[in-house]
């Protein structure tokens, strides 16, 4: 330590920064990022909770959907898509990427799968109906039932009935009539094949994930491997079909990877633009390299400290959107380094300590005020906005201290040497624009704002459309499935939870009665509840004993078939049902299906989460239903314990309410804290008022730009507001304290702080401008608004604020003569 203390300041700073980098690298290596956009939403909102439970628990949310579209006439009759689907399903199963692929309805096909489903459904019927059906399988009644079936086969003109009775002579499958239309799976155009279009030109496969729960990285890797396996299969076969991958895992993969790519692009772009503009302005490698290095350290320190703090306070993981946005916002941290360097080259004769002492009040007050504003945003009920506030607040404080004590010492000696050669000082001399220029600028801006505001204020879009990518292959594939097959529209979902199966069954019955009344009143067009498929433990208990006895009727059924002339193949389904009854009767507790096909079907509407049973239904709203209508229906359903109606429309309305509520929860404390901090920084009412005027003018200008260009507020770009507060306050503090230091000499202020702020504003706005090219719609709109807001804030602070300050400053008369002389010389 003694050796380190005896080193020159520059060498000491270099050593400490390398040590900090080593420590931070270990923290970054353990960092996990959350890219789930749902985690940006308020977790205490019932609608969000319902959607999050749906995403986490139900099969449709955890399965990839692979579509096969016929490429030519050769495949349009199904002769191409059907064998292609079977071949692809076998290839995916052989790959080991999935334990199960469903490419045809579990309601047909394998007699063992269908047999278990029928056995389960009969076990769930009323005891009287079950006993009546059982009687058809016993003794002489079995033979009479088969004779009646023969008579029906001889007289029926319905090909479907003939095919059905040939495979199911005891009509055990009658229990399934109407069931397919009551499940959240595709129903098909004509009911013949729920996994294909009417002409067979489009067919879908459900690919089950090999895990129940997975983070984004695991999900993204799995989706990529499945996509690669599908591409490899397509290359190895000559089926005339085009495969595409969609479904919730594909959406998660696309959205998450796009967010990470966009945030990396914007963060790196911001850093490169800061470096480029610095080089074009100053053309000095040493201060540029040191500035970039310290900015990287600031970002790393913010990430590590923020992750530890958020983990300790909330147990949350850093969200990629909040982190990436905070990283870009740390472009504000470059302000402090640029202001220090501009002061240094303006007067290189001073030491680093002397420059620090001159500028420290400006930087410290600006950082404390801006950081305080952002930290208060942590009170927001939107987790994404809350994380953003905490991260940026921490980052600004870390940046201020890092730049104050780490930037000047390594470059001060070099700057003095360059100044002695006569280069730096001459390059740094720039005069202040004339009063006429500033006046014309202010008048033009005022007219521009007034004209644009006549068009009205920007709209507020509370929807979640901006959370996803603007262009999505998975979305395009899903749109095709919705158009051709139906059953995948973004309607209303009804989630019913309970402590056990009996409680859920009772609540399903109550929900059915309420929805039936709504349908009769014309408030909804229809609904689907899995009541027929949901187990009723009391009924199971009564039917279980008789079901076990029916297993012993198998030989009697075979003998009856032989006597009446039915072949062995006609009894495959019946035998499957009898064996399944034996297995279900021997099980303990509630008898749930266990075979892969029937389990897949059950996972579409039933789940078990955190000790509670969940049932999923659908509600079909009227085509012209308003949000108020849906909220009224939601309120009535909420009267049933454990019932929650949710959907994208209700989510959008809930988010809009939260955004409006946060105005009082965040903005009023934010405004109060700003006033207190500005009072401590300035101790003059006029300067406090001028800082607030900069904020107001910046916000007004941004609203005007939004109105003129047709932009609207949304869930993502609402994060622009704290940026405007931060940048406006930050810039106004720097300018006004510089005006104090230089006794109102605007030319000197412009030569030092003003040029630095313009450089910072240009680099930061350009960095945000790169987000306009983002694949994510929300990030793109956020980038455009941030860039516009930063430009307005920097121009207002540099070109308008000094004139306002001088007009209100009582001590301005002493500086008037100086400015008059300078203008005379010009």
Labels describing this entry:
disordered N terminus, 65% helix, 826 residues, five-stranded antiparallel sheet, alpha+beta, elongated
Instruction: Report the sheet with the most strands, covering strand number, pairing sense and barrel closure.
Output: 5 strands, antiparallel
What portion of the residues fall into strands of 2 or more residues? 5-15%
Percent helix: 55-70%
- Write down the overall mean pLDDT: 78
Tally of extended strands? 9
Number of helices: 31
Structural class: alpha+beta
Provide the low-confidence segments as ranges.
1-7, 73-78, 184-191, 423-431, 811-826
The N- to C-terminal Cα distance equals 55 Å
Q: Whole-number radius of gyration?
A: 35 Å
Q: What shape does the CA trace take?
A: elongated
Textual characterization of the structure:
The chain is α+β, with helices and mostly antiparallel strands. The chain is 65% helix and 6% strand. The strands form 2 sheets. Strands 5, 6, 7, 8 and 9 form a 5-stranded antiparallel beta sheet that branches. Mean pLDDT is 78; it is low at 1-7, 73-78, 184-191, 423-431 and 811-826. The chain is built from 31 helices and 9 strands. It has helices at 2-6, 9-29, 46-57, 81-95, 111-123, 127-135, 139-155, 159-167, 216-236, 248-282, 285-313, 320-329, 333-346, 352-376, 383-406, 408-420, 424-428, 435-453, 473-484, 501-520, 537-550, 554-564, 572-586, 596-603, 627-637, 648-682, 685-709, 720-741, 746-769, 777-808, 813-825, and strands at residues 63-70, 101-102, 202-208, 241-246, 492-498, 524-528, 606-609, 612-621, 643-646. It is elongated and about 115 Å long.
